[in-house]
Amino acid sequence: CLRKNAAERWPDAAEAVAALLALAPGAPAPGLRTAPMPESKLTVAAAPASAAAASPADAALPPSCTPPPSVPTEALRSPAMVVSKEVRTSSGARWRLPAVPRWGYVAAAAVAVAGLVGWLSVRGAAARAAEQGCLLGDADVGAAERAARCERACDTGSPAGCAKLGDLHDQGIGGPRDEARALQLYSRACGVVLPAAGEAGTAADTEMGRWTKEIDAEGCGGSCAGEACASLGRYFQEGRGGLARNEGAATALFKRACQEGAGAASPRRGTAGCVGLGQQRERAGEHDAARSYYRAACDGGVAAGCVSLGRLLERGGPGAERDDKGARALYRRACDDGEQGGCVRLGHMVEQGRGGWVADERAAVAIYERACAGGEQRGCVALGHAQLGGRGGLPRDAVRAAELFVRACDAGSLAGCAELGALYARGQGGLERDEKRAFALSQRACDGGEMRGCANLGGMYLSGAAGLSKDDKEARRLLERACRGGDGGGCLRLARLGGDAGSKADPELVAVVGQACEEGEQGACVGLGDMIETGRDGAKQPDVARAAELYRRACEAGTVRGCTNLANLAYQGLGGLEKSPERSFSLNEQACRGGDGVGCARLGLLYALGQGTAKDLRRAAELHRAACVDPEEPTPEMKERCAWLAELVAADAAGR
Predict the structure, then answer these.
(1) What does the alpha-carbon distance between residue 160 and residue 257 come to, in Å, rounded to a whole number?
(2) Are 442 and 460 in contact (CB under 8 A)?
(3) Is 252 within 8 Å of 277 (Cβ atoms)?
(4) Dihedrals φ, ψ of 266, to 5°?
């Protein structure tokens, strides 16, 4: 109540009472009187009917709980003062304060305050009930009713209710998606007033800087929902809701809602913002600091922090071994707490058979469907990938995949926009080929920190797509960013940037890919293995055994291109591996199930030749259609495999 900064104080007494009552769940707080108050000696003077009409809220209260008038503060300024004046309440009713000595007035004021507390306790209970109806919800309650409950909770002054309502508007649940409304709700729940927008280079920049410093110095007080501050920070980070992208403002908001590093004298802070700070540190390559922030969030009950921490355990990297089982436990904990992002990561592990799971594509698809239905757009993206590849019992359906990517992108998922951009670039899923649209979607995703979008852009600059001039320097910059940020496709493209087999890659490029591999990015390890196998890493002699080990580790970690490359070595008996068409078949099948086109083409060749499995030209033809009709990455290797497969299938059809 005594915070100097108004944003840190409770906005009204109802929330102050509610916070006090929360200290003693299930029972009235000590000292609070919830029984009807004795009748006050204050008398009401006659007032016009229109002015004295009770508000709907007051009409619903019993007579003994009718709120008394406000007490003028000047009445207590002089010990000997005797007060006799008339005051007008906000409803227009006039209240006459009788002339009483100082101590008699104080006693009357105490009675009035006690009556106010009793009334507020009723209002506080109603507010808490509305908040619980919003936050906890019921399984059989529809999205529209959930939104209505959150609207009521927000209207009663619940920051958590406003934050949840903002999430619903942000995701388009219970109504049309509305980023502008979500922004207003996040600002209200965070307890901040956004600075006025203005042109760059004007006083607006100065105002924004001042505002950022103030937010950076403040904690998230009792009238603040930390999760709303974190969401507001992401809006600044991604430039959403009409805001200009501002990393400094995002950092300040994340700090406002993160207790990491807060000293004893610092304002009380939450843990929701620690996830955002951890992501910033992770992008900067500071994995130890990122782990610290994620751990603080996870230990503080923020399920998204557990998901991010699990992802780091999954990747491994400097100073930390890979720990799939630990990651699985964190994902399951988050999923059980209702964090659908944790469910999606858990689904990936189930699909790939990692962390102690037995690979089960159908079970994984069921998890993705549940997450997508629950509003987690990455679940929709994962479901789209499964639909695109025909995995988990789903039919191969690029049109349905495109619908899922559109839904995710429209709901603000940058991952969905990046995948949609890739479909527009290829003209798949019933979409007309539109490279400019693909560029715009990928640019949006990349600017918002989605590395798949950066990898798409890098590929466009390499090929000169969308009317761009070929620019190897810009392509390398984008692919390096994608690779360092954990996008395996970016690492693979970056590794191939050095030229054809036998040519030496730029030492700086080799160093970037190698560093990403050391930090646990398995796609980078595959790229590094490819460089080593083809003699482009600068070494005098190719070290195929080392390449095989890199492929094996990546394959076991779920990076399917590692399985494909390892299958090729097993087929030839290179890199210290025993020559085994059977093992090659098994590895290519694993890669193909995971969506790798090269693996599917090679699997089709094995079916066509009857090597490692029984000859099955029907299956070979199916794999040719799946892998070779407008492949995602038509590399020279892919074109060669598809040409062989087409020749074998055509020869059989002609009876040769």
Answers:
(1) 13
(2) yes
(3) no
(4) -75, 155
Instruction: Give the residue carrying structure tokens 């890659």.
Output: 505
Per-residue pLDDT tens over the stretch 410-435: 988 999 999 999 999 988 889 999 99
At 53 the pLDDT is 41
Give the separation between CA 109 and CA 601, rounded to whole angstroms. Answer: 85
Q: How far apart are the C-alpha atoms of 634 and 180, rounded to whole Å?
A: 41
The C-alpha atoms of residue 56 and residue 155 are separated, in whole angstroms, by: 15
Q: Quick one: DSSP state of residue 24?
A: S
Tokens in use for 529?
A: 């293995």
Nearest to 228 by CA among 247, 246, 254, 249: 254
Per-residue pLDDT averaged across 430-456, rounded? 92
| 197-222 b/e (C-beta count within 10 Å ≥ 16 → b) | eeeeeeeeeeebeebbeebeebbbbb
Residue 595's contacts (CB-CB under 8 Å, 6 or more residues apart) are: 385, 388, 389, 391, 560
- Among 109, 111, 124, residue whose Cα is nearest residue 36: 111
Task: Please answer whether residues 565 and 535 qualify as being in contact, where contact means their C-beta atoms are separated by less than 8 angstroms.
Answer: no
Q: State the DSSP H helix or E strand holding residue 154, giving kind and residue range, or none if neither.
A: helix 143-155
Q: For the purposes of burial, counting CB atoms within 10 Å of the CB of 325, is it exposed (0-12), middle (13-18) or buried (19 or more)?
A: middle
What pLDDT, in 10s, does the model give residues 55-95? 333 333 333 333 344 434 333 333 333 333 444 433 344 43
Output the furthest CA–CA distance in the chain (Å, rounded). 117
Rounded to a whole number of angstroms, the CA Rg of the chain reads: 31
Instruction: Show the CA angle centred on residue 238, arms to residues 233 and 242, nearest 5°.
Output: 90
